[in-house]
Design brief:
Elements lengths: L1 H31 L3 H27 L21 H7 L4 H24 L3 H33 L10
Helix pairs in contact: 1-2, 1-4, 2-5, 4-5
């Protein structure tokens, strides 16, 4: 079981890393103000890696079902990304900033998955998996916000229309 859970954490970490890379590339294109079709493609690739990371993270977490982690503490600085603060924050962010935050959240999730493998199971590994999961969902949030912002500003008639 330990080898199987470590494998899921390794896969989740890998896919979070790739998602971060693609979000950064997409954000870079928006910062340059050109090639939005390629940026949208990079964001789509990030989304696919995100889904694979979530799947592997979920499979790893299922193996920790006997450990209660609902009351675990959040890592320092994580609370600023949760709850009502998100609604206020998203209005002020550009597409590139959402992609950058998504990338940062993916990197944090990948790091926690790597940490979970060091604990060889148990409550500490379960907590790392839970924290990784929360970072992953924040990455999804920022990826979704970037996508909605793209549609609002560029729509089907915009520079990425050939992808539709």
């Amino acid at each position: 079981m330990a080898q199987q859970v470590a494998s899921h954490h390794a896969e989740a970490s890998f896919h979070h890393g790739r998602a971060a890379q693609y979000h950064r590339e997409a954000g870079h294109h928006y910062l340059l103000g050109k090639d939005f079709a390629h940026a949208a493609h990079q964001a789509l690739l990030a989304r696919g890696h995100t889904l694979l990371a979530l799947r592997h993270g979920h499979q790893a977490s299922l193996m920790y079902a006997k450990y209660e982690t609902k009351n675990s503490t959040l890592p320092r600085g994580f609370a600023k990304y949760e709850g009502a603060g998100m609604e206020a924050m998203k209005a002020d962010l550009s597409i590139a900033e959402h992609h950058e935050l998504a990338a940062a959240q993916h990197e944090a999730a990948a790091s926690h998955h790597r940490e979970a493998t060091k604990h060889e199971g148990g409550e500490a590994a379960a907590k790392e998996a839970e924290i990784a999961h929360r970072h992953a969902h924040q990455a999804v949030f920022h990826g979704d916000e970037a996508a909605m912002h793209h549609i609002e500003h560029y729509g089907k008639a915009g520079p990425s229309a050939e992808l539709v």
